[in-house]
Design brief:
Blueprint: H1 3-22, H2 28-39, H3 51-71, H4 74-79, H5 81-105, H6 110-121, H7 125-135, H8 141-170, H9 176-204, H10 209-230, H11 234-247, H12 251-280, H13 293-317, H14 322-331, H15 337-348, H16 354-381, H17 383-386
Transmembrane segments: 6-21, 28-47, 53-72, 84-102, 114-132, 144-165, 177-202, 214-245, 265-288, 295-315, 356-375
Keywords: Antiport, Ion transport, Membrane, Sodium, Sodium transport, Transmembrane, Transmembrane helix, Transport
GO biological process, one term: sodium ion transport
Amino acid sequence: MDTYFLFFIILTSIFIVPQILKRFNVPTITATMLAGILIGPFGLNIIESSATLDTFAAFGVIFLMFLAGLEVDNETLKDEFKNSLVLSLFSMLIPSIGGYLIGQYFGLDFIGSLLYAVIFSSHSVGIVYALMDELGLIKSRFGTTVISASVVIDLISLIVISILIKMGGSGITSDIIPFVVLIAAYIIALLIIIPLISKLILKELKKFHVQKIHFILLIILISIIVGEHIGIHPIIGAFIIGIAVSEELTKEEHDQILNENLNAIGYGIFIPLFFLNLGMTTDISVIFNFDNISLILVSVVTLIGLKISSGYFSLRILDYGKLKSFCGGLLTVPSLTASLVGATLGRDLGILPEKFFVSVVVIALLTSTVAPIYVKSLVSKNYNKLKLN
């Protein structure tokens, strides 16, 4: 297929499908994923995923995580630290127990069951952040609590997945502890070094806004290259860079860099391509494979039930109202990036059998499409009642 025509189809899908589905209260991210399913090889087979599209999509999730980190209000985060910690602990530990028990029941070994437990506990910062942004709740106390908890859980999930993959690939050896120390050193180094460098460089580039963007993109890429060399997933570095850079930006710089430049680059092309490509590579026919139906049903029902209940009760403990707590519980349901990364690596290394990989794909598909639709509808109908400010 001609390259120009390929991108014409992609951009047309990204533009038209969300506009149509917006009338039915479907979030943009969900609509973009559905557009990918529609035009992809498992739908109408109009286009297929390619190395170029995969690269653009990879930049999309990196951009999304960087913007999520950049949007974190560090002062509000400090104020809401206790709330975020309580929500993250409840919505991480309780679902992970369910995931581990399911893994054991369906025949996984110890490492495989731990990996399935981590996948169960993972959230989707990308979906939660994009949905909160669409609903205008990013800067709210509720939004900060939920996003911060999702960030903590996804970071822990990705770090633990990296450790389990290393253990599964080489066995439980003495090099695991140095690897954990290396991950911690990587994160701490970014949080210390990047603000110092950013303070100096951004001061020199005060009047050169284009060069500021170049500098930010450069440090994102450097952190990713270093992280991948160590064995850390790129979105960890991207998010940490976002937090680190945010520390050194004035409000004017933050608004200009974020709203006028990076949001336009990210949401204009890269981020929609991530969600579109995700839809294109999702084989919905796996849902109808009866060989996997018992594992899929048990996993989906258990995950949704445990996540909603753990999120709901943790927010109730923190004195949020019933409706707000229910919305928060629903927002812990989407499971996408970390779960798919873990499942793919686990399958490739033989830690997870194919039926467990299929189960994770179905979970990701259902939770990342249905939950956002319901949350958007619920929030839209009860916005004044919720008073999310």
